[in-house]
Design brief:
Layout: E1 6-14, E2 17-22, E3 25-31, H1 33-43, E4 48-52, H2 64-73, E5 78-81, H3 87-95, E6 100-103, H4 105-109, H5 112-121, E7 126-135, E8 138-143, E9 148-153, H6 154-163, E10 168-173, H7 185-194, E11 199-202, H8 208-216, E12 222-225, H9 227-230, H10 236-245
Length: 252
């Protein structure tokens, strides 16, 4: 049985608004997150991701009230990330309507947090987000919304994350982010062949053929996009129909 590939709009939140940038910079306003979430839920998105992109940098918690408002309007699985650094943070988000949490910098600094979260809430709740750039042929991990470089290899870190109990990995190629030139399919295919847990691809969606490629060449289990949905360049229903036409299983 082939598992259906998932299409996931991503709401990057800053100052309570949805924003979108290029290579993690040059942010522009993309609308009200609650209205967008409701729209995507109705249009057939499989899941929704909400990332409070400045929470870690500003050293504050995710916007719980906004999470709660979004959760009230949607009936699809809802992943929340940004500023999460403890079991208590995750508990609060799950109590306020999140189904899963996406954690990046905090688990890099304290990897055992993955074990703790998986033990308390189950692996299915724990999505580890990894932002990486290809530097001189090697994929290296970046932290704090892509602002802090590390010397850690993407694949080494991804393997550790899986072993510690993460249920999924959300991989964003910073080189591809916002460029609309397609996903980092070689890196995605390598991740997919290395790991047993699902890989969510992020960064680079510009047209429908990019989604076909990310599933066929990149072997991703799900694909995230932002601006192409926010600015109505691609309709989710049209995208799913085209995927089906390319023999890619999706929930229509």
């Amino acid at each position: 049985m082939t598992l259906a590939k998932r299409i996931i709009p991503c709401l990057d939140i800053k100052d309570g608004r949805t924003v979108k940038g290029i290579n993690f910079k040059e942010l522009r306003d993309a609308g009200d997150p609650v209205a967008l979430a409701e729209l995507y839920s109705k249009e057939g998105a499989d899941e929704l991701v909400f990332l409070d992109i400045s929470a870690t940098e500003e050293n504050r918690k995710t916007l719980i009230n906004l999470v709660s408002s979004v959760a009230e309007k949607i009936n699809i699985p809802f992943t929340v990330g940004g500023g999460i650094s403890s079991v208590q943070d995750v508990d609060a988000l799950l109590q306020n309507g999140a189904d899963k949490v996406s954690i990046n910098s905090a688990v890099f600094k304290n990897p055992h947090l993955i074990n703790d979260l998986a033990a308390k809430f189950g692996s299915q709740c724990v999505v580890v987000a990894i932002d990486a750039k290809c530097i001189n042929g090697e994929w290296l991990v970046y932290l704090v919304g892509g602002k802090v470089p590390t010397k850690i290899n993407l694949f080494t870190w991804a393997k550790e994350v899986e072993q510690r109990g993460a249920g999924e990995i959300l991989f964003t190629s910073m080189d591809n982010d916002g460029t609309k030139n397609g996903f980092a399919n070689d890196a995605l295919a390598s991740l997919s062949s290395t790991l047993k847990i699902p890989i969510i691809a992020s960064g680079g969606a510009g047209n429908i053929s990019h989604f076909v490629d990310v599933f066929q060449k990149g072997k991703a289990d799900a694909a995230i996009a932002a601006s192409v949905f926010h600015f109505k360049e691609i309709e989710i229903k049209t995208l799913k129909t085209e995927l089906k036409n390319n023999n890619i299983a999706t929930r229509l």
